[in-house]
Amino acid sequence: MDPPAAGSGQPFEYDATAGSPSRLRLGGRLDVHAVEHVWGVLRREAKQLGAGGSPVVVDVSGVEYCDGAGAALLHALEQDLARAGAEVRMEGVGRMVQEQLTPYRELDDMEPARDGSGRGGGSGLLDGVDSVGRAAYSLFGFVGELTRAIGSALRHPRQVRWGDTLRVAEAAGFQALPIVSLIAFLLGVILAFQSAIAMRQFGGEIFVANLVAVSLFRELGPLMMAILLAGRSGAAFAAEIGTMKVNEEVNALKTMGLDPVRFLVLPKVLAGLLVAPLLALYANMIGLIGAAVVMQGFGIPWVAFFNQVTSALSASDLFSGLVKAVVFGLVIAAVGCLRGLQTGSGAASVGLSTTSAVVTSIILIVVLDGVFAVLFYHLGV
Amino acid sequence: MSEARVDNAKTLDRDVVIRVQGLTMGFDDFVLMRDLDFEVRRGEIFVILGGSGSGKSTLLKHMIGLLQPQAGHIWVAGSDITAAEGAEREAILQRVGVMYQMGALFGSMTLLENVRLPLEVHTDLPREAMDAIARSRLQLVGLGAFADFMPSEVSGGMQKRAAIARAMVLDPEVLFLDEPSAGLDPITSADLDRLIQRLARTLDMTIVIVSHELASIFAIADRVIMLDKESQGIAAEGDPAVLRDTSTHPWVQRFLRRTDSDEERPA
Asked: Nearest by CB to B139, which of A40, A107, A349?
C-alpha cells in the first residue's frame, strides 16, 4: 500500500466485537493525536476481549497511516492480549504498520546494555569512600603541580605567560572596580551609620573612625573582596577551563606537550595573587570614604575623620589584611582552576564546576579567616 | 517580496513540501548566497551539497527558521517560515525534525530522556506510551540497548544516531539532517543510509540532508543542489549520478568525480 501523505486520510475509528474469535478492528489515521485519546480506552477493550483466553483478531487493514505512537498502541494491545492469555492474530498489516512495529518487536527480545539507570547506582558507602579518595588524590596532585609551576615561574620568570596573566588581571581586577566600589562604599556607610548611632549616646562619634578603619582593614575589606572575587573570577575560571575540557582543548594542550597547569592555571593564579591585595586595599579606601560621608552628617569633618583613621591604624592592621587578601586570591584562583580541570563532559558539568568553585572558595575563605584570626592573635599581630 | 510571489506560494503544489524563493543569505554586509530558488518534493531525499564554507549549514538554519534571510522567502509545509511568528511558527516547527551536526543532545539527560523530550512537550500521551515510542526510535537507529546511558557514556557516532532518533520521534513531515554520516564508520554509515531510505519510502517522510559524503549521496539522494561559493548560487541541481556523468560545470565535475583541476578526469 502506498502511504498517504502525512496530515491526510480518514479520522481514526475502531470497533470491538466479542465472539470466537473476537475482533478488534482499527481504521483511518492511527497517529499521535488519535493515540492520545484512545490509549487507555482501547487497552481496556483489549483486556476485556482477551479475558478468558479466547482468540482475538486485531484487524488493521483499514489503517491508512500509522506513526510511532500508533505502533506503540498496537504493540501495547498485542502485549495486553497476550498477558490476558488470548491467542492474538494481527490481520491486514500493511508495509507502513509493519515498518513501524518492527523496532517494538525487536525490543521485546533485547537485554539492556547495562542494568539500572545511567545515573549511578551501586553501594552508597563504597561510592562515597571512592569519590572522597579520588577527590583527595586529585586535590593533592593539583596542589603539587601548582607548587611546582609556581616554583618554576620564580626560577624562570621569562617562561610565564605574562600577556595572559595581565589579561586575566585586567578582567579580575580592573573590571571588578565598579562592583567593588559600590559594595565597599555601602559597607562603609552602613558600618559608620550603625556604629555612630550607638556611639552618639556616649559622645564618642569620633571613635567611629577607629571602628570602621580597623574593621575594614583587618576583616571586612579582604573578606568582602574575596567573596566578590570568588563570585566573579573564580566562577569564570572554572567555566572557561571547564568548557575547554568539554571541548577537548585541554587534551589538545597535553598532546602538544603543554602542561595545562603551567599554560592555563599559572597565569590565573598569578593574576589572583596580584589583584586580590590591590582590590582589598581599594575596597578599604572606598569604605573609608563611605564612612566619612556619613560622619559629615554627625558633625565630624573630613580632616578630623581621616586624622583619627591614621592614628587608629597600625602597620599590623594593614599587613594582616593584605596577607589575608593574598592568600584568599591564591585560594580563589586555584579552586576555580581545579574545579575547571575536574569538569566531566557535557554542558551540565560546566555548570556544576562553576557552582562548586564558588561554594568551595567561599567555605575556604571563611575557614581561613578563622585560622588567620587565631594565628594573628598568637603572633600578636 | 512581490505580491505575485506570495500568491504563487499559497498555491503550492501539494507535492512540494519546501519552496525557497529568491533567498539571499549572509551575515551583516557579507553575502554568502544570492537569489536561491529551489523546491523539495514530498517523500524525496534531497541533499544540499557544497564545499566547506559554501553555506550548506547556514541554508539549513534558514530553512528551519533559526536565521533570517537578507531577502527572499522559504515556505515549509505551506507556511512562510521567514515571516511566521508565535503559534504559527511553533506549528511549523512541530512538523519538522532536525538533527544538528554535533548531535546537540542534552548532557544532563539519558538518551531515552533526550528522545522522549519532544513527546513530553508536544503531546498528551501517557508516560508509558512516551517511553515505548522513545525506546522504539532508539531501537530504529540501533541504540535500543543504550536507552539508559548518558550522552557522555556513548561514542560520537552513537550520539549522532540518538539525535536522529530524537529528530524523528514526532514522525515529522520533514526531517533535516546536518552531516548525518560525518564521523561514522562505513558500516554504521551504510546502516544509516538504509534507515534514511526506509523513512522516506515507507513513512513518506521528506528528508533534507546537508552532506559532502559522496558515497552516501550517490546511494540515497533522489536530488541534489550544489552550492558554489564562487558564483554565490546553485551550480547544479538534479540526480547526483546524472550530474556526475553529464554536467559540464568544471566545479561540479571536480566535486563529484573528486579530480584536481589539472588532473585528467576519469573515464
From this structure: A107
